[in-house]
């Protein structure tokens, strides 16, 4: 056998080994990516809640007239927080709404329940991992916890009215639940919902609700980046059907240049790349998102949280008083 033949066979053998090694590494990489997605979590499909009980003529004296459900934003809650005295984050924005309501109304008139949930948003590319729950997992946990109090309260107190409010990730959760209620497949009947108040909603659609404050040209980040899916973060786009029957009872507050609720429409469309990139300069560290307690929404100097607390108080004051037995 000539040296040339041996050399050719050697090169062929090395090439096969290289191809096999590359294929093995590709399989390992795909397995790691699949595991990454699996561990990061996906958003569950909504499950229509069973119909509530037939409404009696009266309900237990232990039932509140109004059940207020407050959903805090990212890093403003924990699964073990006290729903009636939240302390997980003393600076939680929604405390500026829930506490005034607790001070104004006795629990028999308005039971103010702050949903305890993980409220995290992990950086999917952090290395080493940041130890946080993914947005998908956190959002699913918040949705389950909020639905739980609504379902339980309605089962116990079928004449009690409801008011939903939330901030940031909590606004997405409260808004998604309101959307399901408005479509007729939510945890409580739509006619028992007094109102829905959302601050910095990541799925804000300007045409879906009444907008309070300065005009905002953008949309929620989940509409802006609709279709984007990376491990643990699914941008779900607009809510199908908006808020349905609750559209005229839903209010949204979004400060201009808050990248969570005032993002450029269809940012991923090639024709919008330049305009979207220019808007990124407004979002550096997104300072506006943390300033709703001082963001003024009307000519009287009313801040976003003051407005939301007063709006909720007016809804509660005007709510029906069910007979008690």
From TrEMBL:
<dbReference type="Pfam" id="PF01083">
    <property type="entry name" value="Cutinase"/>
</dbReference>
<keyword id="KW-0812">Transmembrane</keyword>
<dbReference type="GO" id="GO:0052689">
    <property type="term" value="F:carboxylic ester hydrolase activity"/>
</dbReference>
<dbReference type="InterPro" id="IPR029058">
    <property type="entry name" value="AB_hydrolase_fold"/>
</dbReference>
<protein>
    <submittedName>
        <fullName>Cutinase</fullName>
    </submittedName>
</protein>
<keyword id="KW-1133">Transmembrane helix</keyword>
<keyword id="KW-0719">Serine esterase</keyword>
<feature type="transmembrane region" description="Helical">
    <location>
        <begin position="18"/>
        <end position="39"/>
    </location>
</feature>
<keyword id="KW-0472">Membrane</keyword>
<dbReference type="InterPro" id="IPR000675">
    <property type="entry name" value="Cutinase/axe"/>
</dbReference>
<keyword id="KW-1015">Disulfide bond</keyword>
<comment type="similarity">
    <text>Belongs to the cutinase family.</text>
</comment>
<keyword id="KW-0378">Hydrolase</keyword>
């Amino acid at each position: 056998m000539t040296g040339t033949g041996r050399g050719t066979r050697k090169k062929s053998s090395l090439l096969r080994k290289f191809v096999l090694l590359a294929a093995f590494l590709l399989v390992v990489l795909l397995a790691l990516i699949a595991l990454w997605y699996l561990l990061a979590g996906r958003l569950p499909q909504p499950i229509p809640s069973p119909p509530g009980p037939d409404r009696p003529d009266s309900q237990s004296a232990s039932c509140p007239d109004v059940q207020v459900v407050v959903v805090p934003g990212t890093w403003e809650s924990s699964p073990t927080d006290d729903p009636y005295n939240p302390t997980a984050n003393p600076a939680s924005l929604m405390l500026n709404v829930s506490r005034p309501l607790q001070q104004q109304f006795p629990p028999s008139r308005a039971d103010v329940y702050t949903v305890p949930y993980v409220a995290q948003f992990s950086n999917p590319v952090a290395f080493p991992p940041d130890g946080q729950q993914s947005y998908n997992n956190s959002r699913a946990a918040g949705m389950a916890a909020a639905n739980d109090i609504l379902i339980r309260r309605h089962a116990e107190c079928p004449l009690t009215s409801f008011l939903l409010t939330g901030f940031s990730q909590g606004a997405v959760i409260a808004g998604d639940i309101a959307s399901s209620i408005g479509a007729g497949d939510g945890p409580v009947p739509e006619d028992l919902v007094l109102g829905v108040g959302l601050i910095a909603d990541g799925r804000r659609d300007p045409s879906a609700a009444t907008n309070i404050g300065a005009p905002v040209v953008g949309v929620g980040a989940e509409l802006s980046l609709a279709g984007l899916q990376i491990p643990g973060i699914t941008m779900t786009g607009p809510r199908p059907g908006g808020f349905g029957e609750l559209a005229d009872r839903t209010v949204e507050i979004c400060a201009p240049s808050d990248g969570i609720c005032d993002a450029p429409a269809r940012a991923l469309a090639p024709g919008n790349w330049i305009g979207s990139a220019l808007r990124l300069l407004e979002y550096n560290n997104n300072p506006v998102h943390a300033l709703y307690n001082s963001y003024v929404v009307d000519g009287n100097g009313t801040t976003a949280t003051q407005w939301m607390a007063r709006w909720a108080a007016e809804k509660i004051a005007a709510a029906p008083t069910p007979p008690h037995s």
